[in-house]
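Q: Convert this sequence to structure tokens.
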Amino acid sequence: MSIAPETSVHPALRIAVIGAGYWGPNLARNFAMSTDWELVAICDRDLDRASALARKTGEPAVVASVEELLREHTIDAVAIATPARTHHGIAMAAIAAGKHVLVEKPLADNSIHGREMVEAARAAGTILMADHTYCYTPAVLKIRDLLASGELGEILYIDSVRINLGLVQPDVDVFWDLAPHDLSILDFILPGGLKPVAVSAQGADPLNSGKSCVGYLSLPLENGALAHIHVNWLSPTKIRQMVIGGSRKTLVWDDLNPQQRLSVFDRGVDLGRQEAVRDDVEDRKGAMISYRLGDTWSPALSEFEPLGLMVSEYAASIRAGRPAPTDGESALRVLSVLEAASRSLAEGRATRDEVNHPILEEAL
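A:
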């Protein structure tokens, strides 16, 4: 199913971007360029930084605090691009003021805060949306369509690799830094969202940084499939790749190959069942394996900026009063898997997602 923002003419919605650091400028630029939005203000404690961003995005107002923003400016919505530990307080203040809220990943610093945000927005009748930008890329939208149409058949496994020579973050490990991208993609493309049976994480800290710099995340799914995510700050090569194996076809997404981001392989293993009978034993199941070698094709992809589509979808969701494709509930599922991964690392065993499922106390 493709995202199709409404195209009818509406008055522009008024928005403020909170946070002018790493991600805020990208949001501000796209809101300023969108016909759906009027960028009213940039909010940041660093007024010099906020002013510099304002000069690049049409000279919106510059304010130093969320309190001043909500008190002095007429806005419909906010976009939060601040550290995760601040998301809850800012979002709750905005929701209490009747504003719609867009939050960069992750939704919050813990699932308790995330759930409070989701419930507050529901009670207030406002839209809470997560900026899971990858979900609005042409490749991921096409993958979602292919899975929904049954093109790949039943999903058997998913392997995702996101590695590079990256900056060791001061406040989070490699799971919380990189895995939200892959988890949000899986939640977006899998019918019914990401609901693993259990979560098992293994991490390594060869730099003695006090946090995992290399990580492997295993997520058994309800249909017996296995999703596996590899994240790494220490790789000299950058790889952004996902392989989705189905009973009919296999899809490979190479995000760093602009000439052929998606490839669909009509190749795989066919497992046919037959009865194998021996004179001295009871009838038993035997397996006959054959290999399928078919064509490979590359789906055509549209070209557009994912953030541009995301801000348009944010406006469409507000106007229609419907949940966004990456709504608070989807962001909460991602957040809960990250928490389960942290528990698995601490306990040395698999755990079950406490938000979506009861806790599983036994190791796999």
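The first helix runs from residue 24 to 33.
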